[in-house]
Design a protein that fits this description.
The complex is a heterodimer. By secondary structure, chain A is an all-alpha fold. Chain A has 11 helices and no strands. Chain A has one domain (3-216): Orthogonal Bundle (MetI-like fold). Chain B is built from 9 helices and 21 strands. In chain B, the strands form 4 sheets. Chain B has a 6-stranded mixed beta sheet with strand order 7-8-9-3-10-11, sandwiched between helices. The longest helix of chain B is centred in the middle third of the chain and has 17 residues, at 168-184. Chain B is globular and about 65 Å long. The chains are: A mainly alpha, B alpha+beta. Chain A binds chain B through residues 119-120, 122-131, 133-134, 137-138, 141-142, 144, 221-224, and chain B through 48-50, 75-78, 81-83, 85, 87-93, 102-103, 106-107, 133-134, 141, 148-149, 152, 158.
């Protein structure tokens, strides 16, 4: 592995960590709302969140590129705030990845919240816990397996993305060139040896992640 | 009385309407009794604030928790109440001790509030404190849930069929603890149940609910001895007599005494002087005009007829009797009533064929 490979690995990890952290912050309230609401909007929001599961990454990438571009609404905003344009930057890549991996985080957490049901929160209320208190002291600890699954899936999915990176991030060393893109470059250049190192590493990494997910998680949670 | 509980709720859910207006005593156990679908659980949840009844009113003494006419609704977590649900619903991620402490550390403590070890002792769970809820039996879990509710310094304890999810053995395991609470608690308890035995054993005040309406509300025996209740309650009619153990006699019988006389039952293990509640079904009481005759029926007490009414079963009558100030019900046929000439004021003897001791 040369310097460019290591830089790609580091960038990939950095991207996945930042995206996962953001997804936990953004995904948790969405999951909570979806799990508890009786609003008719639930279907619409649920479908929107799930869209990246079925859309080709290029489609999402394309629209994000348009939106964040110099003539798009997001582009106008970032420019007027003096932030410049987001496409082909690390922050742009982070935003795109958050959209793309959102369902992988929201759905496990939402399922966990739904499995808890109404009762423990009612019990908490009769024990003087405000809704905010009950959320942190009861709902979150009981939904821990869901948070773990969501974090692992969100992280792994971000590590594995390719299409959206190409659309939004391009291929700029140290800025947006992640492992999957680096492998593509190696193969294009017929450097199969280098490609093997990275690709094999990805296979091992993803296997380890999924193994951890399946062995730890078969929920030891008892609903009482 | 100033410390009375007032509850007015009207909740409509599809076909079902709960419409109650209750005044309950500020101490002792008030049972909400009714068949499933009678609205008793909905009523309890409305008291807790878990259901919001539009135009509802709920107050304990001078403390008003809901008065929709004034736009007042105190959310459940700001009400000083304890609630025990049908399933223990312990927090699976916390130990028994931390489950019990959950409400305790969030509640404003009152003067005279019991400490955790004392409550654990009271409910016989002191040896379980470090366990996780998954390691407890159903009966133990429910006792922890009761302890947890008590530690939240409640001004009222709401219990929603706390024994319904348990088998008979576990019920027997918990009932003595509930009776202990009954005698030791100074706060009112609202106890929802569809089990006549539980009600007879624990309640001081009884509310009968049927299809969302209050059928009767009053002191336990006052309600139980009514002869005008709908058939869904009348079929199981009977009163509760509070007696004490007078003597264990030689031939394996124990003599109980109550205001109206003495009753013999099979030998009991309780010490002389212990107070016991027993339930006497109307169908187990027959009437005779003769003084104690030769009969295999041991228990025969002097009684005076208060009134009588036909039941919804054709040909059957319910007769309300006074035995030394306690009420007693007898279910007899119309023919017997005519033959004996049963009328209010008539002095006769009531033969009691069976006594159900509540334990």
């Amino acid at each position: 592995m040369d310097h460019a490979d290591l830089a790609a690995v580091w960038l990939t990890l950095k991207l996945a960590i930042v995206v996962t952290a953001l997804l936990m912050i953004i995904g948790t309230p969405i999951a909570w709302w979806l799990a508890r609401t009786r609003s008719r909007l639930k279907g619409v929001i649920g479908a929107l969140v799930a869209l990246p599961l079925v859309l080709p990454p290029t489609v999402i990438g394309f629209y994000l590129l348009v939106a964040m571009g110099p003539n798009g609404p997001v582009g106008h905003l970032t420019q007027s705030l003096g932030l410049g344009l987001l496409p082909f930057t690390f922050p742009g890549l982070v935003i795109a990845s958050v959209f793309y991996s959102l369902p992988f985080v929201v759905q496990p957490i939402q399922n966990a919240f739904e499995a808890i049901g109404e009762r423990p929160l009612e019990v908490a209320a009769t024990l003087r816990a405000s809704p905010w208190d009950a959320f942190w002291s009861v709902a979150v600890p009981l939904a821990r397996p869901g948070f773990l699954s969501g974090a692992i899936l969100g992280f792994a999915h971000t590590v594995g993305e390719f299409g959206i990176v190409l659309m939004i991030g391009g291929n700029i060393p140290d800025k947006t060139r992640v492992v999957s893109v680096q492998i593509y470059d190696h193969v294009e250049a017929l450097e199969y040896g280098s490609a093997h190192w990275l690709a094999g590493g990805m296979v091992l990494f993803c296997f380890a992640v999924l193994l951890a997910l399946y062995t730890w998680n078969p929920s030891r949670r008892q609903t009482l | 009385m100033s410390d009375d509980i007032r509850a007015r709720f009207r909740v409509t859910r599809g076909e079902f309407t709960l419409d109650v207006d209750l005044a309950l005593p500020g101490r002792g156990v008030s049972a909400l009794f009714g068949h499933s679908g009678s609205g008793k659980t909905t009523c309890l949840r409305a008291m807790a604030g878990l259901e919001r009844a539009p135009r509802g009113y709920f107050a304990i003494g001078s403390e008003v928790w809901q008065d929709e006419a004034k736009g007042l609704f105190v959310p459940p977590h700001q009400r000083a109440l304890g609630m025990v649900f049908q399933e223990a619903s312990l927090f699976a991620h916390l130990s028994v001790r931390r489950n019990m402490a959950y409400g305790q550390k969030r509640a404003a403590q009152r003067a005279g509030q019991r400490a955790l070890p004392e409550v654990a002792e009271l409910l016989g769970i002191a040896h379980l404190l470090e366990r996780s809820p998954g390691q407890l039996s159903g009966g133990e879990r429910q006792r922890v849930a009761i302890a947890r509710a008590l530690l939240a310094a409640p001004e009222i304890l709401l219990m929603d069929e706390p024994l319904a999810a348990l088998d008979w053995k576990r019920k027997l395991e918990i009932l003595p603890y509930l009776e202990r609470l009954h005698s030791e608690l100074s706060i009112p308890v609202i106890y929802v149940s569809h089990s006549p035995d539980e009600v007879a054993r624990l309640a001081d005040h009884l509310v009968l609910l049927d299809q969302g309406q209050v059928v009767a509300s009053g002191a336990l025996n006052q309600v139980l001895s009514r002869i005008d209740l709908p058939s869904s309650f009348a079929d199981d009619a009977g009163v509760v007599i509070e007696a004490h153990v007078a003597e264990h006699e030689a031939d394996e019988l124990t003599r109980l005494e109550f205001a109206g006389g003495k009753i013999y039952v099979s030998r009991r293990s309780e010490a002389v002087g212990t107070r016991l509640r027993c339930r006497i079904h109307a169908r187990d009481v027959s009437l005779t005009l003769l003084p104690q005759v030769q009969s295999s029926i041991l228990n025969c007490v002097a009684a005076t007829v208060i009134d009588l009414a036909p039941t919804q079963t054709p040909g059957q009558m319910l007769v309300r009797l006074d035995v030394g100030g306690d009420p007693l019900l007898a279910r007899i046929t119309k023919r017997s009533a005519d033959k004996l000439g049963v009328h209010p004021g008539l002095a006769l003897r009531a033969q009691i064929k069976a006594v159900a001791l509540l334990d």
